[in-house]
Amino acid sequence: MAAAASSLLAGAGSSSCAAISTRRTRVNRAVASLPSPSRTPCTPLRVSPARPLRNRVVASAAPAVQPPAASRVSTVVDVDLGDRSYPIYIGAGLLNEPDLLQRHVHGKRVLVVTNTTVAPLYLEKVTWALTHDNPNVSVESVILPDGEKYKDMDTLMKVFDKAIQSRLDRRCTFVALGGGVIGDMCGFAAAAFLRGVNFIQIPTTLMAQVDSSVGGKTGINHPLGKNLIGAFYQPQCVLIDTDTLNTLPDRELASGIAEVVKYGLIRDAPFFEWQEKNMTLLLAREPSALAYAIKRSCENKAEVVAQDEKESGLRATLNLGHTFGHAIETGSGYGAWFHGEAVAAGTVMAADMSHRLGWIDESIKKRVIDILEKAKLPIAPPGAMTVEKFKSIMAVDKKVADGLLRLILLKGPLGSCVFTGDYDSNALDETLRAFCDS
Amino acid sequence: MAAAASSLLAGAGSSSCAAISTRRTRVNRAVASLPSPSRTPCTPLRVSPARPLRNRVVASAAPAVQPPAASRVSTVVDVDLGDRSYPIYIGAGLLNEPDLLQRHVHGKRVLVVTNTTVAPLYLEKVTWALTHDNPNVSVESVILPDGEKYKDMDTLMKVFDKAIQSRLDRRCTFVALGGGVIGDMCGFAAAAFLRGVNFIQIPTTLMAQVDSSVGGKTGINHPLGKNLIGAFYQPQCVLIDTDTLNTLPDRELASGIAEVVKYGLIRDAPFFEWQEKNMTLLLAREPSALAYAIKRSCENKAEVVAQDEKESGLRATLNLGHTFGHAIETGSGYGAWFHGEAVAAGTVMAADMSHRLGWIDESIKKRVIDILEKAKLPIAPPGAMTVEKFKSIMAVDKKVADGLLRLILLKGPLGSCVFTGDYDSNALDETLRAFCDS
């Protein structure tokens, strides 16, 4: 699988635009097996040998671990944030490489934050990877209930309780093992525990791998709105073992694809076109297709985050479909819909509104609907959502500024969007009425 | 009172060492009325006219406010933290100067966080200062119960609830009006609400004015330890209206003096000597003595914070007596003792341990006890504190690193200290046994 996964990466690497912040890419053998994405000609992706993984930076006095003879790290995408920069490792079987994880552990104590679904699958493996040939490190874990509806203050307190009862100190490391909910909660806990400790992201869902684990947004929900309490807090590294997708339910896989589609729509038309051609392979979990989609998504996200870490403008474009989507999640009860499902319906609504404003052709709106339908994602909100419900929830969205709701809308050719509060609000009303029964 | 308050500032300004980070000081009339602090000769404090207060930086379209003909700002101490730098305004009657506050408000919405004790005294005045000639700004407030025992997650959630129910957005400003508990909670709420909004500190207790409002440490307590959950988050400004001390109970005034004494002990021997001479005036609330003590404390804190914002080393020295003190606060139930009372007893314990280690002369230990006794502060922990209680609580102190408890201890001549885990633990045991019945 590792070799297969690398084949399309190689194809993409030699023919696609370079991500500004992608500084290292290791390509194994280049065996073309999938249609390579059609991209407009531009600067080729820089391909260089990966940095040797010999430099262990751990505080313990554990004996040095020799790297495996042949590292299976397929790709490293760097998130370029000055002294808060970090690597995203992407590849199959990365959890079998203890050194990769251990070099980013600070201190002797680790707290793995995971949930009841992921713990039976990967907690033992991660604990092994953290402690293999590294006897000075001890690992604690806290297993939270699974689901968006538990992304709240009460559940967050369980992380603090465990950390304090375990007498963890400032030189400890929190590890988020799970999907977006775990990553967001563990990250916020790491940001706030003793006013900030190190943390590592090990995302195990496609949603977390392509989006939520990258960029440092952390937080929890409030009964009145999603992600209203949190912090910008960057991890030490993101470790994406694509093998973990083997255990992901279909519905969750599709949820992640909603964010993959997003990158194409807001800034990467060739990636969108590649998805249109390869959606069947993605849904069939073809390893190299998934690996390419993850890599290209992380590159897109890393580029945006490097330019606008704290979302003063550009970064907000990553929220295409999210204002409508968050309203659906909040309005229908956290957890009823997966985040990506709500984002998919929200993306269709954003495309619909963009079209009503005359900002995109009907053909683009149609392609949005088609690709999301093909990914088996919802293209309209649930029946329970009313116009009033949308409006009252969107009024507390984080993108409201001085009372004005700013939205990410498509504008211009495929792959172009705007973040603006300067739109005809009738178009918003019309879209809401078109998608709601009342 | 303003003139009186400025007189000693002038005296100090012309004869004392300059704080590195004190870039602006406005002195009214220089009328020497108090013994000026004896300082070793060094670079005089730079005295220059205050910056004109004409530049209102508010987002609203409110008509410009003319500054008062004669501003009563006595002193501005700058906290130099690059793009997070901010001024500390110190003076009598500053809440009567709307412009001073308004220039630091971002957006049109303000949330004042205060408590049941302070609200009846100053909420109306602060609301007036925020809105006077500034009709575009609207002010909400949340009034929390008063006391350290409410510095918890449940109370913090009330701030989020109010902010969300009021539909505050990212361009709002939180204002902390009260003592250290309010400042810590409001600051952490501002750090976490929508992942960070602007905030302003208006400290109304001596403790908050000389210490907790400056430097960006925010947070809440956990049942197992003090300030274990929080963030480093800097305010837009700190506004210290020394008139607010007129309503402060004696016991709270003394509590603040414990931190003033701390600055002298850890880094400013001339200030300690000045306190020894002027303690009676401080307790009698002589305005110029208080104003000088506040200014010199803020200068000391600003210098330390500018060098080590996130407490990688030097900043920890500001916690002299605090490890013992936090244990007393946690062990005897938050709120039983005021923070400064616990710090006072903790400072005596730190001095005792330093003396047992042979690091300071007995005379220094005696001067520590004498000055704290003179300030009517406790010089020993409450009877309920046992050796075991101290040890188990101190084990989760934030200054523990990889299992080693680091302490701030006095070492060398007056005004010198170390932050270290390299001490004979027998001395710690002996100190604990000497101060505990069991």
TrEMBL record, chains A, B:
Broadest EC class assigned to this enzyme: lyase
CDD domains: DHQS (cd08195)
Signal peptide: none
Location(s) in or outside the cell: Plastid, Chloroplast
Cofactor: a divalent metal cation; NAD(+)
EC identifiers of the protein: 4.2.3.4
GO terms for biological process, alphabetical: amino acid biosynthetic process; aromatic amino acid family biosynthetic process; chorismate biosynthetic process
GO molecular function (one): metal ion binding
The 3-dehydroquinate synthase N-terminal domain, residue ranges: 142-254
Pathway: Metabolic intermediate biosynthesis; chorismate biosynthesis; chorismate from D-erythrose 4-phosphate and phosphoenolpyruvate: step 2/7
The 3-dehydroquinate synthase C-terminal domain, residue ranges: 256-400
NCBIfam families noted in UniProt: aroB
Stated family: Belongs to the sugar phosphate cyclases superfamily. Dehydroquinate synthase family.
Function summary: Catalyzes the second step in the shikimate pathway.
The protein's name: 3-dehydroquinate synthase, chloroplastic
